[in-house]
Write a structure and sequence with these properties.
The structure is a single chain. This protein has 371 residues and is an alpha/beta fold. It folds into 3 domains: 242 residues, 4-Layer Sandwich (Purple Acid Phosphatase, chain A, domain 2), CATH 3.60.21; 71 residues; 52 residues, no CATH class. Helices cover 26% and strands 23% of the residues. It has a 6-stranded mixed sheet with strand order 4-3-2-1-13-14, covered by helices on one side. A 6-stranded mixed sheet has the order 5-6-7-10-12-11. A hairpin with a 5-residue loop joins strand 13 and strand 14. Helix 8 runs antiparallel to helix 9. The model has no long low-confidence stretch (mean pLDDT 93). The structure holds manganese (II) ion. Manganese (II) ion binds next to loops. Manganese (II) ion (MN) binds next to loops.
Length: 371
């Protein structure tokens, strides 16, 4: 039997420039990704894998540091004689100034630098065909016209889009049809690009996306895994996901409508069950006009309870407009005027007008206004 341990989309040196991401927090997230790759090599050694493969987006070229180049070299060198085969993707294309081109890789490392599948013999009767992106926007079908040569089992390794199952909003790079894998004569394709784990087709898979080994943001919930592929002496292949990720992102909704104080909201956030290491609290509902809601202040008060917390304010101002419009005051007149003006408005216009109305009402009450 021959065992391959496969990962992809590690995204080392990712920017993490989202809201609430301070430089320190972003550095901690990047460290988690490095820890993930180190553990991937640990696992390969523990399983005595015969080869290790990476299906692209190992790092992000735009931000990749020489430091990360040395880190990768040191980790891959730990494998000794065990081959490591790397297929650059759209975030880490093989460019003259890429880490792939600049680092002095150990002898066990093979990097596929061309956008055309080339064979590497893993063992007698077992060949792996790999290709690499050489630009961030390679759109060609790498499988077009491919016909593998020679006897034995043939595997493929590249970064590309299975057009039969495209995740929503995912850009298409090197699109292909799963049928083209079998038509080429290959037994199985080890891929990268899609960040969720997938075997396709599910009942008799010919390809695998391992997904990100650690999640990269709040959209990547669920279990994160790496893929083990066993090639049996009879030539059959057995893909198996191995639970892997240690980092988790979790999102919690906090209903602010029953609260009369910012203290109530603070306590609700601090008492969230900390399921993940990285938590997002989404404040919802109409919030009572007396509550002093300031996300920056809340963040400072709650941050120490979490490894990382992001607070998103989706509340609406809880003024009772029906009551206010009946008032025979300037305030009442203001509400009547605003509501008359909003008549027939829709969508974003209404939201902006409601916000303006809330600011106005706070001004009437001589309250602080933060925009
Ligand atoms: Mn990716």
């Amino acid at each position: 039997m021959f065992t391959i341990l496969h990962t992809a989309d590690v995204h080392l040196d990712r920017a993490y420039a989202g809201p609430g991401m301070s430089a320190g927090i972003a550095a901690a997230r990047r460290q988690e990704l490095r820890d993930g790759f180190r553990r991937f090599i640990d696992l390969a050694l523990e399983l005595r894998a015969d080869a290790v493969t990476v299906g692209g987006d190992l790092y992000e070229h735009d931000r990749a540091t020489a430091d990360t180049g040395h880190f990768l070299r040191e980790q891959l060198a730990r494998l000794g004689q065990t081959p490591a085969l790397l297929a650059p993707g759209n975030h880490d294309p093989y460019l003259p100034d890429s880490l792939y081109a600049r680092v002095g890789w150990p002898a066990n490392v093979t990097i596929f630098r061309e956008p055309a599948l080339r064979p590497v013999t893993l063992r007698d009767g077992l060949t792996l065909w790999g290709a690499g992106h050489d630009s961030p926007d390679l759109r060609e079908n790498l499988l077009a016209g491919l016909r593998v040569q020679g006897a034995g089992v043939h595997l493929l390794l590249f970064h590309g889009s299975n057009v039969r199952s495209v995740p929503e909003g995912k850009a298409s790079h090197c699109p292909f049809l799963p049928d083209e894998i079998t038509a080429s004569g290959a037994r199985f394709a080890l891929l990268g690009h899609y960040h969720s784990p997938a075997l396709y087709p599910p009942d008799a898979p010919v390809l695998a996306y391992p997904g990100t080994p650690e999640p990269l943001d709040f959209s990547e919930d669920g279990e994160h895994q790496v893929l083990r592929l066993d090639i049996e002496p009879d030539g059959s292949v057995r893909p198996e996901f191995i639970p892997f990720g240690r980092v988790s992102y979790s999102t919690h909704c906090v209903d602010a409508s029953p609260m009369l104080t910012s203290e109530g909201i603070r306590a609700a956030i601090c008492n969230l069950p900390v399921r993940g290491t990285i938590v997002r609290a989404v404040l919802e509902g109409p919030v009572h006009p007396d509550v002093e809601l300031d996300v920056g202040v809340l963040y400072n008060l709650c941050a120490e309870h979490f490894a990382f917390i992001d607070i998103v304010n989706r509340t609406t101002p809880g003024y009772d407009l029906d009551e206010l419009r009946e008032e025979s005051t300037t305030k009442g007149a203001f509400v009547r005027l605003m509501l008359a003006r909003m008549e027939g408005w829709e969508g974003e216009e209404v939201e902006i007008a409601r916000e303006a109305l809330a600011y106005g009402l706070r001004a009437f009450d001589r309250r602080e206004i933060s925009v």
